Amino acid sequence: MMTDEKVVLQGSRRSEQRIGVLCIGMDSSSRESLDVLVVQTPGAYVVDNVDWHITPREAMKMLEPYQHRICVIDFEDGTEKGCRVAQRLRDGCDSSLGIFAAAGGSDPEQIMAAMRSGCSEYLVKPFQPERISHALAHVAARPQGKSGDLVKGRIVTVMGAKGGTGATSLALHLALNLVQRHGQKCLLVDEHLAFGDASLYLGLGRHQYSFYELVHNTDRLDADLLRGFLLRHPSGLDVLDSPEAIDGFPQPSPEAIEHTLSFLGENYQFVIIDCPPGLTEESCAAIRQSDRLAIVITPELPAIRNAIRSIEYLTSMHYSADSIDIVLNRHSKKSALSDHEVEAALHRPIAVRIPNNYGEIVNAINAGTPIEFGHRSDLPAAFDYWADRLTGSEGDIPRANKGSRGWFGIFGSRVEG
Ligand SMILES: Nc1ncnc2c1ncn2[C@@H]1O[C@H](COP(=O)(O)OP(=O)(O)O)[C@@H](O)[C@H]1O
Ligand SMILES: [Mg+2]
């Protein structure tokens, strides 16, 4: 006990030496043994034990806080399976990631296969303390990777606090803004289990395959398969449609949804999810994979009450409160509830305000042609502000979207809904 405490203290003081070890498909006794052996190297910890279909993005997210990162793949379930995971990590992660194989014996063919697929160490069970400390030291001596290079795309879930708050309209205009103004490679995912509106609002026909068909093919997911599922908007925005029929396929598993979204995050700079309201298994899976969650409210009590409950639930499930943005749609100075009252009820600031502009939104939806960005109206400017926030360029328009100054005071025009 004393020794462990000392090691932890040493580790936290020498933060530049932090080493994170992620086990993949490890049996419980081997994991327990690694837990004990890894902490004997100061600053080193076993982060978790995950199953074999982890993606590079998921692995790097878990190891992000660590300076040096290692994945230990258990090869006992089969050489082929182990090699597949190792190759996936090698291809999708920074070269500074240490990939180790663990196995019960020293089969020369398995050792060769593991090395060829990217493993730099082959650890024989039961693990020997010196082998582990030696292997960790080897990775710690390598040049470090930058975590920014590793997690490529950002996933943003846009969810209405209740139906009809405008989540679909907002998600697709945000996605279009990211494509058109920021030149981002962007995908809009319609996560509704049936009858989603996103492709309709964008004026695209229905695709014969939906996001959920992709989820059901998660085992053979690659860029070629994905291509066959995409709708393409003339702007360059890619869309994964919602299913047309409600009973077309079995219930998707949350793990498969998470895995699919993680894969998509590796293929786009931004993945925007038009998420149905309500904390269902499907929406929670999307939220877990998201870097940010935008909860769309309107200035009315039922929406605000649902938003409060959703935030309470999500934070109790360890979703970071800092990753949640409140997006107030249909904002107007004439609303019965002031911005201040909304913020006081939610105990958090409104991150983005989208003005009430029924005419412009409904015309866009009816025509299947989204609002145009770049013209001097309050509506596109609100999406500019939101997209700028997400891409980290909001400093360019410092006073935009501040409720207390009226809409877009910098343009000198105040528009009320
Ligand atoms: N900013 C806005 N101003 C006025 N009307 C809006 C605004 N945003 C959305 N709406 C309208 O609200 C209705 C619901 O929008 P929709 O995007 O389908 O919501 P949800 O996806 O949350 O059900 C639509 O008729 C849409 O035109
Ligand atoms: Mg909708």
Description of the molecule:
The chain is α/β, with parallel strands linked by helices and 417 residues long. The chain has 2 domains: 2-149, 3-Layer(aba) Sandwich (Rossmann fold); 154-411, Rossmann fold, CATH 3.40.50.300. It is 40% helix and 17% strand. An 8-stranded mixed beta sheet has the order 8-9-7-10-6-11-12-13, with helices on both faces. It has a 5-stranded parallel beta sheet with strand order 2-1-3-4-5, with helices on both faces. It is elongated and about 70 Å long. Residues 1-16, 147-151, 396-400 and 403-417 have low confidence and may be disordered. It binds adenosine-5'-diphosphate and magnesium ion. Adenosine-5'-diphosphate binds next to helix 7, strand 12 and helix 15.
SSE order and pairing:
Blueprint (H helix, E strand, L loop, with lengths): L1 H12 L5 E6 L3 H11 L5 E7 L5 H8 L4 E7 L4 H14 L5 E6 L4 H9 L4 E4 L4 H12 L13 E7 L6 H14 L5 E5 L7 H4 L9 H6 L6 H5 L3 E2 L5 E3 L13 H14 L2 E6 L5 H9 L2 E6 L3 H16 L7 E8 L7 H8 L5 E4 L2 H10 L10 H14 L26
Parallel strand pairs: 1-2, 1-3, 3-4, 4-5, 6-10, 6-11, 7-9, 7-10, 11-12, 12-13
Antiparallel strand pairs: 8-9
Helix pairs in contact: 4-5, 7-16, 11-12
Bound molecules: adenosine-5'-diphosphate and magnesium ion.
